[in-house]
Design goal:
There is one protein chain. By secondary structure, the protein is of the alpha+beta class. It has one domain: Maf protein (Alpha-Beta Complex). The protein is built from 4 helices and 6 strands, in the order αββαββββαα. Strands 2-1-3-4-5-6 form a 6-stranded antiparallel beta sheet. α3 crosses α4. The two termini are about 30 Å apart.
């Protein structure tokens, strides 16, 4: 809706995104409310602590989660394309790492044996949900640009 409204108003191709953390044992919460899960004024640390408190009695094997990002690309003619990126992992018992933001210090990727906050930015961009969605959006934008040139 965001992308479509701004595309219609601006008469330009418009991108909008939404992302969040979905924790399986919490039935997909915090989801799209990830940034507000611990209250509107909560800091990243507050959100992490809130999540860890909710999972305090949850064993490791049930702490599975995924980061998800959806990017909408809307055209002024009303067309919309969606790009989705996903990154699966688990929620750790305590924060680890200094890079990133949000839930990165507690989002563990087993194939790398690291949390998102332990990756340098260039590596995080390769494996993250946002990086995956952005690469898909780039391909769509290239196609749209080539269509306009033709």
């Amino acid at each position: 809706m965001k992308a479509t409204a701004y595309a219609m108003a601006s008469h330009l191709i418009t991108l909008a995104d939404d992302s969040g953390l979905e924790v399986d044992i919490l039935d997909g919460e915090p989801g799209v409310r990830s940034a507000r899960a611990a209250g509107d004024e909560a800091s990243d640390n507050d959100r992490v602590e809130h999540l860890l408190a909710r999972l305090k009695d949850t064993p490791w094997e049930k702490r599975t989660a995924r980061f998800i990002c959806v990017i909408a690309i809307a055209s002024p003619d009303g067309g919309t394309e969606l790009c989705q990126g996903e990154c699966r992992g688990s929620i750790t018992f305590e924060p680890k790492g200094e890079n990133g933001f949000g839930y990165d210090p507690v989002f563990y990727l087993p194939e790398f044996d690291k949390t998102m906050a332990e990756f340098p930015l260039e590596v995080k961009n390769q494996v993250s949900h946002r990086g995956k969605a952005a690469r898909e959006a780039y391909r769509i934008l290239e196609r749209l640009a080539n269509k306009v040139k033709a």
